[in-house]
Write a structure and sequence with these properties.
The complex is a heterodimer of chains A (265) and B (253).
Chain A lengths: L10 E11 L4 E12 L4 E5 L6 H8 L7 E6 L2 E2 L7 E4 L11 H13 L4 H13 L15 H13 L5 E5 L7 H18 L2 E6 L2 H7 L2 E5 L6 E6 L14 H22 L1
Helix pairs in contact in A: 2-3, 2-4, 3-4, 6-7
Chain B lengths: L1 H30 L9 H13 L2 H33 L1 H16 L2 H12 L3 H25 L3 H9 L4 H38 L5 H10 L3 H29 L5
Helix pairs in contact in B: 2-10, 3-4, 3-6, 3-8, 3-9, 5-6, 5-8, 6-8, 8-9, 8-10, 9-10
Classes of the chains: A alpha/beta (265), B mainly alpha (253).
Chain lengths: 265, 253
């Protein structure tokens, strides 16, 4: 289940460029970006702010169209959002007028039209998986940031997405909660055999979570380096004290430093 | 603790009303005002009983109520629909803004006579005055509400491939509702003002007409009865909206 399967990538981004027209001159967000994500792989996109990582993620999910280049998802060109692709954004985008359970059920309600008992059972099961048993009738305003983001995760998982796109999903949480959520995410990743593409600007987080870290330069974002993370799975917090983890983090840090230096030159 | 405070709050409302009536009564006795300047509560009560007995209050109230009701249906219906589309389409809003603002900047007392000339002194002109005056607050609040929809939630709905109707029902309407209710509360109260203004300009029945009639014969107690009836109608409308809000926005508490 582990290890990239290079034969047929689940997601293939090829030569993607994107510019935004804002003010007098277009801003080039991405320039000639190509990469692939294999089935079951956990890939982190790492880069300084303004490197177009979020734009890249939205293009990879079909939310925005690239100016140039193509995105192939599951063997087909991606031109619009897919139910097979789940998003988790940094802001906890729960609907405040829906209970936790109703929020988790939203994707099914939209796709199936009507809900039955089996759907509810599945939602309750997922809430158990993310550790929110007993909160199904609560409204989002009564949840902490970490709990709310768990609901988002459960809502995303209920679609059984082949690909999970995450944009700094735990960026708004405190460091301790963030660490716990990362472990949670790894558990879900291995249990659900999901493929994850995650945007982050934390080197330590990227190295801890990913099979592969892709490093983007400053605007316009280009891929400057890629590091395979050969740490064993399941990952444990203790690994962050190990020598191999330190080496990998240093390597990634050097690439990120180069990326920033290049852009400055 | 919270429940007890709430209970006391409810109990306070009649007490405050009672104190108001007692002060009013005391003022009349102390200054010995004649009834045509300021009648005491007893005189107004007697008049109320009299017009209730002969059925005239019911007749006038029924007419005003139907004007208010039809005016609200027309005014709010147009405002909610127009507000939704203007909220989604900034170009349309920019093009129509002059008309919308003009409709509100001209005082309703100046427009009402025109409407009476064009549509006669019957029901239609009053319904139109009501609709006109209720239109603006609900229109603006609907527009603002529709625009307040969270961009991330819109992205989410798009990624789930929600259709236009699902987008409206599951996202836009619930997002906008808290703001729309603010506009609705203003609109329903203005509806009563609209009906009275319409009746003042030209009518032979209705609570506004009754006020005019009573003024002509210096029957101040009757004016009080008519005004109090208007207050009761406005209160009832406001309360209806407030209860609907309470039920619809349970999640905010």
């Amino acid at each position: 289940m582990n290890g990239p399967d290079a034969a047929r990538p689940l997601l293939a981004v090829a030569r993607v460029s994107k510019a935004f027209v804002e003010g007098p001159r277009p801003i080039r967000a991405l320039h000639d970006v190509s990469f692939q994500v294999a089935d079951g792989e956990f890939v982190c996109l790492l880069g300084p702010s303004g490197s177009g990582k979020s734009t890249l993620l939205r293009i990879a999910g079909g939310l925005i169209a690239p100016d140039q280049g193509t995105v192939i998802f599951d063997g087909r060109p991606l031109t619009e959002p897919q139910p097979d692709i789940g998003f988790v954004f940094q802001s906890t985008n729960l609907m405040p007028w829906r209970t936790v359970l109703q929020n988790v059920l939203l994707p099914l309600e939209i796709q199936r039209g009507a809900l039955d008992d089996a759907h509810t059972q599945r939602a309750l099961e997922l809430l158990r998986v993310v550790g929110l048993e007993g909160f199904e009738r609560a409204y989002p305003k009564h949840l902490s940031g970490g709990m709310a983001q768990r609901v988002v995760l459960a809502r995303t998982l209920i679609q059984q997405p082949k690909l999970l796109l995450m944009d700094e999903p735990f960026g708004a949480l405190d460091a301790l909660t963030r660490e716990r959520m990362n472990l949670e995410l790894l558990r879900v990743h291995s249990m659900q055999a999901a493929t994850v593409l995650m945007v982050t600007h934390s080197i330590t987080e990227a190295v801890f979570l990913a099979d592969r870290v892709i490093i983007l330069s400053e605007r316009p974002g280009r891929i400057v380096a890629e590091t395979a993370i050969d740490l064993a799975r399941p990952r444990e917090i203790g690994m962050t004290a190990g020598a191999r983890y330190g080496e990998l983090a240093m390597e990634v840090r050097r690439y990120v430093g180069n990326a920033v230096a290049q852009a400055g030159a | 603790m919270g429940a007890a405070v709430k209970y006391i709050e409810h109990l306070l409302v009649p007490v405050v009303v009672l104190i108001g009536v007692m002060l009013w009564s005391a003022l009349v006795r102390w200054q010995e005002y004649p009834a045509f300047i300021l009648p005491g509560p007893e005189l107004v009560w007697a008049k109320l009983v009299a017009v209730l007995r002969d059925g005239s209050l019911a007749r006038h109230t029924a007419v005003t109520l139907s004007e208010v009701g039809l005016g609200l249906v027309l005014g709010l219906g147009t405002a909610l629909t127009a507000g939704y589309f203007l909220g989604k389409n900034r170009l349309a809003e920019r093009l129509l803004a002059p008309y919308i603002v003009a409709s509100q900047s001209v005082p309703i007392v100046a427009v009402a006579p025109l409407l009476v000339i064009w549509f006669g002194s019957g029901l239609i002109s009053k319904v139109l005055v009501c609709a006109l005056i209720t239109f603006f607050p609900t229109l603006v609040s609907t527009m603002v509400g529709i625009r307040s929809v969270d961009a991330d939630l819109r992205d989410l709905m798009r990624s789930l491939r929600a259709g236009r109707w699902q987008m409206f029902r599951l996202l836009e309407l619930p997002s906008a509702l808290p703001i729309i209710f603010g506009g609705l509360k203003l609109s329903v109260i203005l509806a009563v003002v609209g009906a009275v203004v319409g009746e003042f300009v030209g009518a032979d029945v209705g609570l506004g007409f009754l006020i005019n009639l009573a003024r002509g014969v210096l029957d101040t107690p009757l004016m009080f009865v008519a005004v109090l009836s208007l207050i009761v109608i406005a209160q009832a409308l406001y309360l209806t909206v407030a209860i609907a809000e309470h039920v619809c926005l349970r999640w905010q508490r």
